[in-house]
Design brief:
about 240 residues, alpha+beta, Jelly Rolls, four-stranded antiparallel sheet, elongated
């Protein structure tokens, strides 16, 4: 569960892979510089190629890490139990959380999830009632347990929810999470609740930032390339008229 909204939409990007791919982009760009086209077209093509390689870097690294190994819908309209497992591909910090769609009003949803901002939202008409009991096991060994009721650590993004627990997962070990709906909440159940296990954003903050810069740079380069191409086209049109 990622608490940083802008980071939740960005993919991972590797410093190690950046230099080789950028070098390939530059070499390809130099090839275009040798082509017999107008200077404006040459520059535009160079920028387009570099921007495509920048975007490709972020895209190809995105699939290397399983950012959310578990995403399971649960029914919180009635008492029920769930169990799921996962095996991490690397030693890393993870977050166990409950996420919901933005179906209800902002204040209503915050209140019913128990993540309202203290002192700013009146939750007397929408008191938190949902209580999930969670248990975590590693290779059938008990690790931790707790309840969602009273836990106010929340997150907001495309979905809104609360963080139930943060833990370190061991590579190649089988982790099991058990969820019991102790006290249901039929009102909140319409928001498509899901139990998720996700990589902690702070574990990969550098790669998130670099990924964001990579994608933003590719977009900026495409815009600049378009402007340069249009300017070249305009200059050529003017020369033909005169």
């Amino acid at each position: 569960m990622i608490e940083h909204d802008s980071l939740a939409s960005l993919v991972s990007f590797s410093r190690v892979n950046a230099s080789p791919n950028l070098a390939i982009g530059v070499i390809t760009s130099l090839f275009f510089l040798g082509c017999g086209v107008r200077t404006s077209n040459k520059i535009a093509l160079v920028l387009v190629v570099i921007s495509l390689f920048a975007a490709l870097n972020g895209y190809r690294v995105h699939g290397r890490h399983d950012w959310s190994p578990v995403s399971m819908p649960i029914d919180i309209s009635k008492a029920s139990s769930y169990e799921f497992d996962f095996i991490p591909k690397k030693n890393s910090g993870y977050e166990l959380g409950l996420s919901t769609d933005r179906t209800l009003g902002f204040d209503v949803q915050n209140c019913r999830l128990g993540i309202e901002t203290k002192g700013f939202t009146d939750c007397r008409n929408h008191v938190e009632t949902l209580d999930l009991k969670w248990s975590l096991f590693t290779n059938e060994k008990f690790i931790a347990e707790g309840n969602s009721l009273g836990n106010s650590s929340g997150f907001w993004g495309e979905r809104v929810g609360k963080i139930l627990h943060r833990f370190d997962a061991d590579k190649s070990k089988r982790h099991v999470v058990r969820i019991d709906v102790v006290i249901p909440d039929p009102t909140l159940s319409v928001a498509n609740p899901m139990v998720e296990v996700s990589s902690s954003a702070m574990e990969y903050k550098d790669t998130f930032v670099i990924a964001g810069l990579s994608y933003y740079a590719s977009i900026a380069l495409l815009v600049i390339a378009s402007v340069i191409w249009l300017m070249g086209f305009f200059v050529m049109w003017v020369k033909r008229k005169t």
